[in-house]
User: Fold this.
Amino acid sequence: MVWKTLLQHCISQPAAPRRQDPAAVAALRQRLAAAGHEKLGRSLAIRHVAAGSCNGCELELRATQNLIYDLTQYGLSFTPSPRHADVLLITGVAGDNMIAAARQAREAMADPVLVLAMGDCAVDGGVFKGSPAIAGGAEAIMPVDLFVPGCPPAPAQIIEGLLALLEVNDILPARPVRGPR
Amino acid sequence: MKLLSAQDWQAYPGKFIALWTDAQFAYALYQPAELVATPLVEGAYPALRHKGAAWFQRLAYDSHGHNAIGAADTRPAIEHFRSADGTAPWPEFASPGGEGVHQVAVGPIHAAIIEPGHFRFSLRGEEVLKLEARLGYSHKGTLALMRGKSPRLAARFAARISGDATVAHSIAFAHAAEAALGMTPPPRAVYLRAIMAELERLANHGSDVGMIAGDAGFSFLDARFALHREALCEAARVAFGHRLMMDMVIPGGVAGDTSSGGATAILAALLALESELPSLTRVFEDYASLQDRVVGTGIVSPALAAAYAAGGFTGRAAGQNHDARVSPGYAPYEHFGLEVPVEQDGDVVARIRIRLAEMTESIRLIRDMLANLPDTVIAIAPPSGSGSGLGVAESFRGPVWHWLRIEAGTISDVFVADASTLQWPLVEFAAATGILADFPLINKSINASYSGVDL
Ligand code: SF4
Assistant:
C-alpha cells in the first residue's frame, strides 16, 4: 500500500525549513502586488522556447518551480501552448535552425506579448557570439522586452526578471473590471 | 593510434564508441580506448558496419562533407539545408506500410521546459511502430569555435556542450588536453574534479527519477527529488561558486579550491539526501500505478544494448557493465573501488533502479574523497606544446569522449562524442516498443542530450 509507505515516509522525515530568504520573498511579493495585479489579475502564463541553449538554462528555469522558489506563489506559471501564454521566454543563442520555430511560437501568441531573453546566450549569443551558425541572441530574431543575463542565471534572478517585466511594461491592459450583469 | 588500410579499417573488431574525420583521416574509437584511423581518399572513407557508426557517419558528412562509402543510412543528422530565406525543407519521414498507419509530428518545441528536437512517430492506433528523430535544432557551431583557441579558452565551450553534464565534459576535455600536452594535473585538482562530477551525477539522477514519476502523474517524488537537487546545487554554489559548477574544471587542474564552508555544505546536502533516499525508493517501488507505467516500458533489449555497446545507465540497465570510471578508468577512482550496478530488463524501471543505486555509490565516493583530499596546488599552467590526445569522463548519462589536436598551444582540431550520440538511436528503438502516451517516460528515462549531439 503506497499510502502507508507515504505516511511512513512523511513521519520519518523532519520538516525541512524552506531556505529561500523570507525577506526577499516578501519584497518580491510586494512588488508584484504593486505592478502585476492590476494589469494581469492574478496570473501570468509563460511559454518557454529553447532556441539553441546548452540546456544549463533549462535546468535553472525548472528549478524556479521547486519547493524553495515556488514560482506559482507569484502567480507565474508555465504553459505548454503559446496560445495561452503572456510571456515568451527565450533561452539559447537563437540558432539558425530554431529561428523559424521561435518566430512561429511568437506569432501563435495573442498580443500583447512580453518577451524575455534569459541567459547570456539569449542576451547576445554568450560564449557562442560570432558563430556563423547562430543569429546571436533573441533580439536578433524578435523584439525583446527584458534581458536576464547569467550563465545560467540563478532561479532567484529569473524570478526577479519576470517580476521586473511586469513592473516596467505598460503594454499589458489593466485587469478588466466586470460590472454587474 | 593505429593507422589501418581500408580493409583492416572495415574489418577491425571491437566495441565501437565513436567515429569522426579531420582533413586527412577518418578515426574510429573502440572500447576501452583504442583509436584507429584510415586515410581519406578524395574526401571519403569506407563505411563501418557497427550499429552505432551510422549516426557518426551522418554527422561527419554534415560537418565536413566526408562520405562514408557503402553506408546504408545517408540521411542528414543535424544539417537542415536552409535556403537563403531561412526556410528548410522537411525531410522525408518514411512510414512503415500497413493499414491504418499514420504519423504524428511533435516538436521542435516541446511541451515541457526542455531542449528542441523534432519527433516523427508512425502509429497504428496508439501503438508506436517507428520513431524518427530529427535533431540539429540546438546547433551552435561549437566545434568550429573551439578551433584556433588555446586549451584554456576552448574549455569554456567544452563546458557548454551539454549543460547538465558540464563537469563531465570539462573533465574529458581537460583529460584530452593534458594527454596531448603530456601534463599531469595535481592530485588535489583530480579529487576536486571527481567530487564535482559525483555531485553532478547525484543532482541529475535524482531530479530525472523525480521527473519520470512526475510525468506519470506522481508529483510527490518529483517535488522531493527536485528539493534535493536544489540543495545539491546550492552546496555546489557554496563550495565552488557556481550552482552547476560550470568552468570550474580547466586543463591543468581546477579553477578554484573549495571555499572554507564548502565541505560542510556538501556533507549536509548528502546527509539530507541519504536519509530520505531509502524511503523515497520504497515509495517508488510500492506505488502500483507508478510501477504499472514503468515496468516493461521502453525496452532496450540486452541484445540491442550489446550491438550498440551502449554505455551509461541505459547500457547498464540492459546487461552492459561498461563504466568509463573503471574502464579505461581515470584518476582518482582507482583508489575508491567503484561498484557498477547492472540490470538485465532494459526497461524504464531498470534504468531508474540503476540510477538510484548509483546515487548511493556517489554519496559514498564524495564523502571518501572529501575525507582524503590531498594537500597540493590546484592547477598547473598548460605548456605551449603540440600533440594530440584523447580524454574520457563518465557523465551521469554515460561516457563523453573528447579528442584534440594541439599545434603550438592552439587547438587545430577537435571532436566530441557525447554519450547521447549512441543513445538517440536507442531512444528511437525504445519508443517503438510502447504506446505514444509512454514516450515522455521513455524519453526522460534515457534522457539523451540534444545540445550534446547538435554541437
Ligand atoms: S547562457 Fe550559459 S547556461 Fe544558458 S544556455 Fe547559454 S551557455 Fe548554457
About this structure: The beta strands of chain A are 44-50, 76-78, 87-91, 114-118, 146-148. The domain at 40-161 of chain A is CATH 3.40.50.12280 (Rossmann fold). Residues 22-40 of chain A form the longest helix (19 residues). The first strand of chain A starts at residue 44 and ends at 50.
